[in-house]
Design brief:
three-stranded antiparallel β-sheet, about 450 residues, binds iron/sulfur cluster, ten-stranded mixed β-sheet, about 40% helix, globular, TIM Barrel
């Protein structure tokens, strides 16, 4: 029936995966739903409230028509962003690095660097699609190890972009090589820069060492301060941070660190991700596994409390909660003729990660077993169609009876295990998604019952 019961300390609600609405309901309707079937009267009430359709709703799981239209869209417009894996070399050796060689499915560090020809051909291929805006990202390893090559690629892209279009650049760096020259280059390019910093010294240095095993926090922080004093306007506008949360629980320390360094963090909302504790090649985990499940509820409570008081939440709470609340608060409450399970996943190829050897992948975090093309040949649309077909087969009909169908986030990289997409990963993902969404929806209801407009400050983006 696509309904989730939500109970707060003062209210009872039903969230409908069909209409995407949250409706406050009587204890009677709530109990009946929670215990199973509705009688005719309650069913009529649920229909009137827009919670369930009068006639059963058709839920489709990535059917051939949708696959064909997704691929047609790719053929017309190409990727939204091309990320160039400029080099596999890195001057750091972070213990949790996806490219440390410790994870079963990923590459290790190497000195491999993309050739100028491959990089420029990738840019030319991208410019072959008619777009108003092209987005080019530089990724590694550590891309700033190849600053002259970045200059060449950027200059080529700016001079060769199709008339009337814009090129936006982005770069992800560990922050060690942000000297004046590199900073000036990023400013000239007006690039969005993401610097990885995991929190205060003790948290950051726990896992982020350089290739000689030395701690890196002091150097990165120093570089950030110099960068900001050299280019304050640019820094405040376009420098942001990536934070990896790793055990043991560092959440309170990160929150204090961001507050104490308001000159750097200001009102930025960094990208926060929990480390992927996959088993290593030998089955062991590269990180300690105790305290590896992070409890974000205190951060969520702090976020909701601030919203209820009409105050801007602290930066770390915003980093953890704001994007999820935005998605819930601005969800479209339309009733489609049929529900498609395409809402939460991207089409392979919408983002294009080009590795140092010129192979195209659906993102920088997928293992190498799911290529989507090559710089020499462009996209392999048949292969992309095959991925979508296997994806659809794996999902089967499970989403058609799931209340999370309109909010769930899933994609092929999340399900990739070795050469295939795994049913076990999907089961685990579904369990995580539903638990996570139920938690967030209940916090959302709690906030709004205290103050109805408490999330209105969060824009659509
Ligand atoms: S800086 Fe990034 S690429 Fe380099 S070792 Fe650390 S996580 Fe890996
Ligand atoms: S949680 Fe699982 S079953 Fe539910 S919509 Fe997401 S992928 Fe489908």
């Amino acid at each position: 029936m696509l309904l989730l019961p939500i109970e707060t300390s003062t209210g009872r609600y039903l969230y409908s995966g069909w209409s995407n609405r949250i409706v406050e309901v009587s204890p009677d309707l709530f109990e009946r739903y929670a215990s199973g079937e509705l009688d005719d009267r309650q069913r009529a009430a649920a229909i009137r409230a827009g919670l369930i359709p009068e006639t059963p709703c058709d839920v489709v799981v990535f059917d051939p028509e949708l696959v064909a239209s997704a691929i047609e869209g790719l053929k017309q417009s190409g990727p939204e962003m091309v990320v160039l894996g400029v080099t596999e070399a890195c001057n750091f050796r972070c213990d949790y690095c996806y490219y440390s060689g410790a994870y079963a499915d990923s590459r290790g560090h190497s000195a491999k660097t993309i050739s100028t020809e491959t990089a420029l051909t990738a840019v030319e291929w991208y410019f072959g699609f008619p777009r108003k805006v092209y987005r080019i990202g530089f990724y590694g390893g550590e891309p700033l190890l190849q600053l002259p090559l970045l200059r060449t690629i950027a200059a080529h892209a700016v001079s060769r972009r199709p008339e009337g279009s814009r090129v936006l650049f982005a770069l992800t760096t560990n922050g060690a090589l942000l000297d004046d020259e590199a900073c000036d280059f990023l400013v000239e390019l007006d690039a969005e820069t993401f610097v990885s910093i995991d929190g205060p010294q003790g948290v950051h240095d726990r896992y982020r060492h350089d290739s000689h095993g030395n701690p890196t926090f002091a150097m990165v922080l120093n570089n950030l301060r110099r960068f900001r004093s050299r280019h304050p306007g640019y820094f405040d506008r376009l420098v942001n941070f990536s934070m990896t949360i790793a055990p043991p629980n560092p959440l309170p320390e990160i929150a204090s660190f961001m507050k104490e360094n308001a000159d750097l963090f200001g009102v930025k909302v960094p990208k926060v991700s929990a480390v992927r504790l996959l088993a290593g090649q030998d089955g062991s985990s590269p990180l300690p596994t105790d305290n590896a499940t992070f409890d974000f509820s205190a951060v969520w409570d702090a976020f909701i409390d601030s919203c209820e008081r009409g105050e801007l939440p602290e930066p770390f709470a915003r980093a953890v909660c704001e994007a999820s609340i935005r998605k819930i608060h601005h969800r479209p409450m339309t009733v489609p003729a049929r529900l498609a399970t395409t809402g939460g996943q991207c089409t392979p190829g919408k983002r294009c990660y080009v590795d140092a050897g010129g192979v195209m992948h659906m993102c920088e975090r997928v293992n190498a077993s799911f290529p989507v093309g090559s710089v020499a040949e462009g996209y392999d649309y048949d292969r992309i169609g095959d991925y979508l077909a296997s994806y659809s087969e794996l999902l089967g009909s499970r989403c058609s009876t799931c209340w999370a169908v309109r909010l769930c986030r899933k994609c092929i990289p999340m399900l990739a295990e070795g050469q295939r997409m795994s049913a076990a990963s999907l089961d685990a993902l579904c369990e995580r998604q539903k638990k996570d969404l139920a938690f967030k929806l209940s916090r959302y209801c709690r906030g709004r019952e205290q103050r109805n407009d408490c999330f209105d400050w969060i824009g659509k983006e």
